[in-house]
Amino acid sequence: MPSITGLTAAEVEARRAAGQTNQPPKSQTKTTGEIVRDNVCTYFNLVFLVLAVMLALVHSWLNMGFLGIVFWNTLIGIVQQLRAKRTIDKLTLVSAQKLRCLRDGRWCEVLSDDLVQDDVVEFGAGDQIAADAVVLDGSAQANESLITGEARAIPKECGAELKSGSFLMAGRCVARLTRVGAESYASRLTAEAQADGHRVARGEMMRSLDRLIKFIGVALIPIGAVLIWKQHWVLELSMKDTVDATVAALIGMIPEGLYLLTSVALAVSMMRLARRKVLTRDMNCIETLARVDTLCVDKTGTITESTMQADDPLPLAEKTPITEILSAFYAGEQPDNDTARALTARFGQGGTAWAAVRTIPFNTAYKYSAKDFGAQGCYVVGAPDVLAGSRAGELADRLTPLLAQGRRVLLLAKYNGTLPDPPAALDPAQLEFLALLPLQNRIRESAPKTFRFFAKQGVKIKVISGDDPQAVSHVAANAGIAGAEHWVDAATLQSEAALAEAAEKCTVFGRVTPEQKRQLVHALQAKGHTVAMTGDGVNDVLALKDARLRHRDGIGRAGGQPGRAACAAGFGLCRAARRCGRGAAGHQQHPALGVAVSGQEHLLVFAQHRRAGPAAGLPLPAAAAVARHVCHHRRTGVLSGA
Hints:
By secondary structure, this protein is α+β, with helices and mostly antiparallel strands. It has 22 helices and 24 strands. Helix 4 runs parallel beside helix 9, helix 7 runs antiparallel to helix 8 and helix 18 packs across helix 19.
């Protein structure tokens, strides 16, 4: 290892004083005070507060029972948002990790959040890159699928850049941090997504109720004035009786029972989803799920799992015991990358009588691993283009179709020479090609069923990925997505008009940048679609932000703003969320309005639902509110607000 010096304690303190630390950006969730304020300071509550003050001025405490509805409606909103905040904040802390850091000439373990700019850090297989860095020594393979959407290993040699949010699949390297904290790539992408702050979009039902209450709130002023004039100056009632009668009449005009019923229906749906390990950030996403007509999904980590699966080998030579060779090659292995883990799981579980006299582990410098079994021969597994070298054309006919399907392919060959010591490139002329070993990210078990469900619901699926479009199309077809054969390379969409046209005509989009993902969502929304998006990577953040509803498969802090719905147990639970959304919205959206009139000035508007809500007994709050008004009117002749 070349001479590498880390920071001294004094240099670390100087950078901390300058704010050059790897502390995560300020939490994007609202504070407890903001949550309480937003739920208390609403127009709905203001109307009832004014009426309550009127009753308090005349000491009519018994007629203030309607404040119970206000209290419970406000409490439901506060509690569900506080629960979501706590869960999201806990998820944010999970991404912290301990890394080996060189300080004062000694290697020590430092929490990733305590790193500073210019720290020298060692990363190994499986480590997440905590901040942007440049490789000083060593070699490794990085997976940047969370950033670019492309599920392939990228070699990282001396001088190469490591981006925050990626992680090492294999190898080990020493790197110097160049951009930390809010300046790192992942944090800057998150900051752009949060540039205008967190806006909570109200659902259509709640917006309709808000508009109704605002209209009624304005109408209450002249109506209330007329009622007070009539009750006090025409009927010559006392001021207390005048206020009681006026408030009772005005309360009867406000559908507070329906407002509470809507909140309860959405809250119950949230609880049902919580039991399925689905975190909803606010209640409005429940209704939005029912209105979604276009679902944008990523390929890597959404349609497919993150783990690799080894397929059947494709023989290149006759009468060769390929399975026996692979079993001996991977028996007893302790793999340190996804590819080796998949091959070990497929071929290395049984025993073998072959004994290896020499082993060369995989390294990105020469891109192969090898084992010499003495009398049984010497075998190598590695990248076909590197091992075959000038003979790569011999593999083209078999290799090209596999690569077009998005598979990762390795070559198994017998080496008829002596393995170099130290390890170096092999002579292609000494190789005897035995088999191609295709691997792929397996399709999630729940994905086909989920896509069939959405197809029956009339929801169009759009697959947006950073991978090769033909490969993505193949995966989408295997997952059962209709129209998967209609694909486009987003790199060819150079204008907004071309992108908007493709958004309507195509189902699969390949080689899409994070900004193009956002533009695709905008293009679909401009056509009048209600767009939901699901993704698991930093490259999805911008598009997730602008989608009407977002689903995130949880990742670490580098993932940016949590979506409105975060599924801890995976993409398949979107079906359950959709059903809850349809139930909650459907039961609230078609009420039969009834009007009860008593005298010329008293008007009571109430909603009687055609069928039960998502949980038994949900119509009871509205029914109880109506019953209280009617029963009090029958006893006293005055509509009560209690």
